[in-house]
Design a protein that fits this description.
Length: 218
Amino acid sequence: METSFWLERWKNGEIGFHRDSFNPALEAHWEKLEVESPTTVFVPLCGKSRDMEWLARRGYQVVGVELSQLAIDAFMESQQLKPVQRQQDGFIVKSAGPYEIWCGDLFALPDQCMESVSAVYDRASLVALPPHLQCQYADWLKTKLPDTPALIISLAYNQSEMKGPPFSIPEVRVRELLGDHYALKILASDDVIDDNAALIKRGLTGLHETVYLARRIS
Ligand SMILES: C[S@@+](CC[C@H](N)C(=O)[O-])C[C@H]1O[C@@H](n2cnc3c(N)ncnc32)[C@H](O)[C@@H]1O
């Protein structure tokens, strides 16, 4: 999507993807990554997700990236934190407590930002991106964090019922994008349409959330 699409959504408060509670899939499955704390978890396209708080409460440092300054400020405010701000490599970086959130385009992140990352927590990144950026995102992960295990939460539905975003990312697409590099284990797959009134309004009759554990093929 154009950067402006997401910035407008944040400006207009059109953020139906945001959850006010921790993601149950994160709570249920995170430990299967077997990543010890204190280490750093990278959260791509992080929005103002409270899942970052969940990770921080378990002792992790959290590095996020997000296009919208509004989202980052809202997150810091929700944590009652006053971040320190610096400019680095064309990004505004806001840090406070266990959090360091880079404001800008994931694809422009400097490698240095991922230096100490030991795990990735990705909820709804692929579904936020149109097909050509889905490929770019998959390549980015495989190149920049090749050995890092990831918990990936994605959505699939009948794409003829609605235009994205969120785009439908069925298992076959996840495997096409990531299966050459990662062993992908499905940890859960649930119908979550009833929790998504806004998407029902947009015409969806079914919505599947699938949780993947991704580890580099050895
Ligand atoms: C579907 S939302 C998911 C947010 C978050 N992961 C969550 O679970 O609430 C996608 C987010 O990615 C951000 N975004 C989209 N493209 C991006 C990019 N290229 N770089 C950084 N952030 C991006 C959007 O502003 C939006 O907040």
